[in-house]
Structures are given as structure tokens and as C-alpha cells.
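tool=predict chain=A
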Amino acid sequence: MSTLLTLLVAGFLLFFLSTTFEVDLGDTWGQIKRSNPWYYLFAFLAHYASFPVRGLRWRIIISNAKLDAKAGSRLRSTVECTYSIFIGWFVSTISWFRLGDPYRAFILSKALGGSFSGIFGTIIADRIIDVVSIFLLLLLSGSILVFQRGLHPSPALLIIAFILVVTTGIFLVLMKYLGIRLSRMMPTRLAKVYTSLYQGTMGSFRKLHIIGLLSLIIWGAEFGRLVLILHGLGLSLPASLILFLVMSGALLSTVPITPGGIGIVEVGITGFLTMELSRDIAVSVVLLDRSISYLSIVIIGGILFLFANIMKSFKIASRQKSRTERFR
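tool=predict ok
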């Protein structure tokens, strides 16, 4: 299933990019074949190295909210967080409206014994931290491009990021000052769920210096992925432009319009790359990069998802068998 979806997505990307930017697919494929496979491998490893760091950051956020009482060892909870994030990414790549976020809350709440609403509150906090860091890094890299390089990327991304930051800020203020009052006006069961969500969200913002450092490491790994892709093609771009491209891709994939930002990220990044590169080369960069950041998630995530469900089925069958034998 995941392989079929991967092939369909790859075909869609090739068709969409070639028609939108009027590129020669033969030249693009030639560029991809000439890329250094070692650089591609290291780019792959750089991307996947960010997941344990994301897992550690989320574990710290959960600990801040005091939701890890039943989590066991820190290593176990970090591994569970990393796995849940990755499976959540997989679900988001094949579904609309970022359904991977509630799904990873479901996985972790089952694994660690926490409440779903509380864990989901920490995901909201996790996303807010990402949005703020993306906005700041976009602002930094965009300013360098304008004032030092004389390039003028579209301000639309900064506007979108700014709107998201302001929206999340308003959300936090309203939750902070109206949260407890709202819970008092709700039915008991709903109030309990909302209170858990409130505690998970508002209790997450501690140890921000550690969370901020881990966020920089995460984005550094994503930055390294694109640098390695470019070097594999024998290309070199200004660091500020590479950082702007990475942050733009992260922002566009955050907006829940298409699964994993498919179609939107590719067009946006290709458009920015054509400021420095030809269209054929720009498309080859995007295809190589998205084969790691999107298609590999579909393939590996699909395998892990299938394996986990098979193991779950075996466990259920084993329990039913033991119960049957017990009552004989």
C-alpha cells in the first residue's frame, strides 16, 4: 500500500513540477543520476538524526507538564516519543488536516499511560514552539538575503508565519486567562478533558533554554540535509538562502492544506531556487530533497506501521489463546 502510494506521489510530483515550471525531465533526471550517492546517504542520515532530538524535546515538554509519572525510564519515554512522532509524520503524509498529530497523542497515551487530552496539549505546545522558531529563522535568513545578498524572496511566507505566531499568541493568552473559567461552565466530563488539555498546553513552557537549543539542533539537521543534497549535485548556495528554503519548506508543510504539504512545498521551494539556479537543476534539487523528507517517510513509516499492527494482532491472538486454555 505504502509502495503504491509512493509511486503515485512520485509520478504526481514529476508531472506537476514539469508542467508548472516547463522543465526538461531528461535533463532533470540526468542531474539526479550524476549526484553523489554518498552525499545523498549523509543527507538521509542527517534528516533521520533529527527524530531522536525531536523525541527528546517532546519528552522534556511532557515532563514540564508533569504528564510522565507513568512513563518509566527517561530512555524508554524518549524512544516512545520518537516512535510516536515518526508514525505521526507518516500519518500526516497520507492524510489531510495533519491527522498525524492526534494519532501520535493516541499512541503515546497508550504507551505511557497518560491522558490523551493532556498529551495532545503538549503537542499543541510543541507545534507552537516550532512555529515561533520557524518565524524567527525565516526573519533572520530573509533579512540577510535582502540586506547582504540583494535578493528579495516573497514576503508572503513571513506574513503567513507572522499570522501563525500572532494566532498562537492570542490562543495562549485566551487559554491562560479564560481557561479555568471555561472549565467551570462545562459539564463535568468535558471539563475534565479540557482541564487536562489546559494543563498539558500551559504547563509545557518550562526549560525553554533547553527546548530552544534542541530546536536549533533539529533545524540544523534539516539545514544539513539540504546542504548535502546541493553538494551531491556539485552546487553551492548562500547559507542564508539554504536556511530560508528549509524554513519555508517547514512552514509550508505545517499548513494543513495537503498531506505533508505535497504540491505546495515543491512549487514553493522550486520557485525560490530559480532565483539562483536553472529550472531543471532546481527541480532535481527538490525531487532529491523531497524523496528524503516526504517519500522516505511514506515508505519507512508504512513498513513500521504495518509491522506494529501485525505485532499487535499477534499479541491479541496470543492473549485470547491463553484465556481459552485457562478456562478449559
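The CA atoms of residues 198 and 283 lie 44 Å apart. The radius of gyration is 22 Å.
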